[in-house]
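Project outcomes to date are best conveyed with an example. Our students and postdoctoral researchers have been running inverse folding experiments weekly, and each run begins with a structure described purely in tokens. The record below, which covers 344 residues, was selected by the lab manager from last quarter's runs and is presented without edits.
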């Protein structure tokens, strides 16, 4: 498999931030670095959420800002990590040099193989670009087109060693395959609101299932090794504990869709307001969210992972490609594991 590993902006950004701390960096220097293709890939992904001028205004005034004063939610959520980075630049410089030497072709191939175990056989992955940057937004790692981008700041915050990082690397590779090889064969314009709703849980749910060895309420960890690797402990525990209310909301939404009370716009709103919400129940909008994953991670792991547990990989991906089959196999899975009370 062919791939590229790119990280050429990291040390220049670290050096520029050192100059910033000394009051010597200019806006033009930052802009010149942000014109690099790796940062342009970031801004393309964050389009509509964060643009170059917003980031430049932020970075040039960062020492005068408090979290509560930052309006942009991506910058607000990332602010504490960026401040910690600025306070510990020598640590990040030394850590990066040690870290990147371990991201060898052999390492990449190993994690790709982990991801492939959780995908249909004989899948032809597109050639990926594994990009490391000093990140500009809230995401620790993400896929956009054939780019897999990792924020060095959060990587060194959340992962104590390379073994912990492996799960995230495989996780994003799984996304790459899902977006480019599985979902690309589905004509989204033909999906009913109900089919679209079910599919919305499959991407994150299956990535954590196969690459993070996630343990849910209905879905069990695949491997006997450590569970929930690379997942935020507080978030995972909070969302799994909230399973009864989450399931109640899921079944209510399905009922509204099936009765005709919800159209596609209503489904999109429900996904935005509830399923991809990073806030705990005691939080208000505008605060920095406490959750690092949203409910599509945990609940997607449960409902799609349960199907894998009960009927295997072939049936799982057949259902993804034909989401009209989901209710029947979901209900059969619940019967098989002894939880018919959750049927839809």
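After processing, the design step wrote out the following sequence:
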């Amino acid at each position: 498999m062919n791939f590229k590993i790119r990280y050429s902006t990291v040390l220049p950004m670290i050096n520029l931030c050192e100059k910033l701390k000394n009051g010597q960096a200019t806006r033009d220097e930052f802009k010149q670095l942000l014109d690099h293709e790796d940062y342009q890939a970031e801004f393309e992904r964050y389009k509509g959420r964060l643009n170059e001028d917003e980031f430049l205004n932020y970075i040039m005034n960062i020492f005068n800002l408090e979290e509560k004063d930052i309006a942009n939610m991506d910058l607000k959520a990332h602010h504490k990590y960026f401040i910690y980075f600025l306070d510990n630049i020598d640590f990040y410089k030394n850590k990066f040099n040690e870290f990147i030497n371990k991201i060898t072709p052999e390492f990449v191939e190993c994690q790709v193989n982990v991801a492939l175990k959780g995908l249909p056989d004989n899948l032809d992955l597109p050639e990926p670009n594994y990009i490391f940057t000093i990140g500009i937004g809230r995401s620790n790692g993400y896929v956009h087109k054939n780019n897999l981008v990792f924020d060095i700041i959060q990587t060194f915050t959340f992962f104590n060693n390379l073994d912990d990082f492996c799960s995230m690397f495989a996780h994003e590779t799984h996304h790459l395959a899902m977006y480019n090889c599985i979902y690309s064969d589905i004509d989204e314009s033909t999906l009913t609101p109900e089919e679209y709703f079910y599919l919305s849980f499959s991407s994150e749910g299956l990535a954590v299932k196969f690459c993070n060895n996630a343990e849910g309420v209905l879905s069990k960890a695949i491997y006997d090794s450590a569970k929930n690797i690379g997942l935020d402990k507080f978030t995972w525990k909070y969302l799994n504990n909230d399973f009864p209310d989450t399931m109640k909301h899921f079944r209510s939404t399905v009922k509204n869709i099936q009765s005709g009370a919800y159209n596609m716009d209503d489904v999109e709103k429900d996904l935005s307001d509830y399923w991809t919400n990073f806030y705990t129940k005691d939080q208000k909008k505008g605060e920095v969210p406490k959750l690092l994953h949203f409910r599509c991670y945990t609940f997607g792991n449960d409902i799609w992972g349960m199907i894998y547990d009960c009927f295997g990989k072939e049936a799982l991906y057949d259902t993804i490609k034909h989401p009209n089959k989901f209710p029947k196999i979901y209900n059969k899975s619940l019967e098989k594991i002894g939880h018919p009370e959750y049927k839809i």
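The radius of gyration is 21 Å. DSSP finds 16 helices and four strands in the chain. The training component of this project remains on track.
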